Amino acid sequence: MDSDFDGFIQDEESWHSLSDHIRDFPSNVHLAMSLPSIASRVPAGLPNSQGTGIIQPALKELDTASRVPSEAILQWEGLTLEVDTKSTSRVILNNVSGYVQPGETIAIIGSSGAGKTTLLNVLSGRISGGRLSGKVLYCGAQRQPGSFRRATSYVQQDDIMHSLLTVKETLLYAAKLRLPNSQYSRDQKRKRVDDILHQLRLEAIKDSQIGSTKNRGISGGERKRVSIGVELLTDPKVLFLDEPTSGLDSNSSQLAVELVRKIATERRIAALMTIHQPSARIFNLFDRVILLSQGHVIYFGPTTSAITYFLKLGYSCPVHENPADYFVDLMTLDYRSDAALTESKMRVADLAYSFMQYKTQLATEEYTKAVFLYGQDIAPKEKCSVAVTHQVQNSWMYEYKTLARRDWLNLMRNVPFLASQVVQSLATALIVGFMFFYLKHDSASIQNRLGVLYIVALNATFPIVMPALYAFFDERDIMLRERSAAVYRVTPFYISKATTFMPVALTSSAVFICGVYFISHLTFSAGKFFATLGVLSCLNIVSISFMLMIGSAVRTMDVAFVIAPGIITIELLFGGLLANPKTIPVAIKWIHWINPVYYAYAAFVLNEFSDLQFTCSPGAVCYLDGMQIIEAYGMGRFTIGQDIAMLLAIAAAFYLVGYVLLRWRAKPKFTWI
Ligand SMILES: Nc1ncnc2c1ncn2[C@@H]1O[C@H](COP(=O)(O)OP(=O)(O)OP(=O)(O)O)[C@@H](O)[C@H]1O
User: Fold this and answer.
1) Residue 229: what pLDDT?
2) Is 430 exposed, middle or buried (0-12, 13-18, 19+ CB in 10 A)?
3) 494-551: per-residue pLDDT in tens?
4) The organism sits in which domain of life (predicted)?
């Protein structure tokens, strides 16, 4: 096991030096160790604070829970998390204990890498990987993942939202999806949104778009308040916030914390937030603070007692210094030199050890009454209840309709995307149309007809898949986040995506085929035109299903943008024009049997050439009958109907695989204790 304390705590000399400091620490009580991982490293024979004996082993008989007020909504004891790194394992959280009561706001403060987010994730039930021990109790009982998730909310550090929705729309769709129809009417949901807008002072910007790095929207502080508002809609009993002030200026940071505190107090919500280095004003807003360093608790208690506590340890915070800065400096390892690092490690170990002793002392009656840690009762006595307000899920159809409306609104607002789809289709149709202008019925037109039909098929692959894949990744991240809060099912999301991308794909293909058909003068009859359009629509459906499958299978967009074009290129290679299907080696022949481009192209060729007659040009390879061409190119194996059936079967297979992969990806893989 390895940690930043290694090489220090195991070093006997360091422990002796540490014990010198500890010896001066409160000596009116019996000192004992309750932090097993440190205790186990104390060299045998180290004198205790009175210098009269050996430091006692952990006092197992001390029930730390007995010190936790009965109204604590969430309490955690002995949380230890160990993760494996490449060469060794590392302790990220070390015997962390604490609790939070309704109506109070607690800050987890520490330098970068102290374990703040990890602690918040463990408490909110969002930790995966590593070996986690200890216990987390909700209302004094073990947490049930489903009901705990519904009773709590988590505001993530990065605010991922639909950039084209307005503030009010964002909250309204969140209310529609998160609040059950059985308990909230449409008007009540709207009222709830208005209340949140008012409470978080968002009324002035309620009609502004959220925006993103690409299109400017509301400010960072406003975005954060919208994120908080979304999570407050369900009236959570516990609100977790990961670095809600990160990236904000001091005024916005203060406003965010002030509002959280105010709402937490008014609505009796227990708010727990990580914060890196708050200003003095923000620091004073917290009811209690947890100071973390290298996974160890350095202090947990009322904010107002922190200065006194550290003073008792011999660390006097200068009058004009921000206490939070002072504490974080104390807790931070100094990597500027070996000597500074050793000294800072000593100090941090000293602080961790001192707090551990305080915890032990608190078990005694005198200390329970002492001013330091549990002297203040923030919450009036109230009974904690595990019953949650929002347990009923909305119907599948309601979720689908709401998600589809939200997706559609987003899509329609994405004017550059829509315009580029239409312009691309129109421009390509004109170029292709005039390149193969007014095809005749001679030998040369055979090659041109085969070429133009291949481009029609090609135009339903890359131009459809790539932009949709890009849009899907943004949406998928939002879905994964909303799913982690059990906001809706995966199926309505998936079907909503499949159905909202489709009209755009079909429209751009229709624009393209109309242009090409009439300018190139492909064989025109209503039957042939609509048959081509029908096959093209089926290929579009396959492309959307392929996009969903890749988007669900691959974790990052960078990889998806390598894999998707690679597969499409193979499809085009085996599509029937570049290599004759009859001559493909047996070992790889199967590729064209599962290749949608082949079936679409075969149907196009069959449709176009089946009734055509050609004249022979002197010196050219001569085919008089279109059926000869179909036979020569290996395109007549199936009827158009069979080709369409194969396309739809491939689309169904892609949809299914994509759905299974997305479900797997969206399934929470968290460790529960
Ligand atoms: N799964 C993991 N595997 C390996 N190391 C991890 C893992 N999770 C967290 N860590 C490490 O644990 C330490 C604490 O991480 P955490 O994100 O909790 O820190 P933090 O206090 O929130 O820091 P910051 O303020 O920079 O976000 C870091 O050094 C991090 O690299």
Assistant:
1) 96
2) middle
3) 999 999 999 999 999 999 999 999 899 998 889 999 999 999 999 999 999 999 999 9
4) Eukaryota
C-beta 130 within 6 A of ligand 1: yes
Asked whether 115 lines ligand 1 (CB < 6 A), one says yes
What is the predicted ipTM? 0.96
Tell which atom from ligand 1 comes closest to the C-alpha of 292: 21
Cβ neighbours of residue 627 under 8 Å, at least 6 residues apart?
Answer: 609, 610, 636
Q: What spacing in Å lies between the alpha carbon of 116 and ligand 1's midpoint? A: 8
pTM here is: 0.82
Closest among 359, 355, 376 to 292, alpha carbons compared: 355
> What is the distance in A from the centroid of ligand 1 to the CA of 36?
22
Residue labelled with tokens 């015997």: 95
Q: Is 275 helix (H, G, I), strand (E, B) or coil?
A: strand
Q: Is the CB of 220 under 6 A from ligand 1?
A: no
In the structure encoding, which two tokens stand for residue 117, read together? 């987010």
Q: Could you state, in order of their start, the residue ranges of all structural domains in the chain? A: 158-236, 396-666
pLDDT digits over 606-628, tens only? 999 998 888 887 776 778 888 98
Residue 523 to residues 4, 497, 608: CA-CA distances in angstroms?
Answer: 76, 35, 6
Q: Is 290 in the pocket of ligand 1 (CB under 6 A)?
A: no
**Residue 543 identity:** S
Calculate how far, in angstroms, residue 118's C-alpha sits from the geometric centre of ligand 1. 6
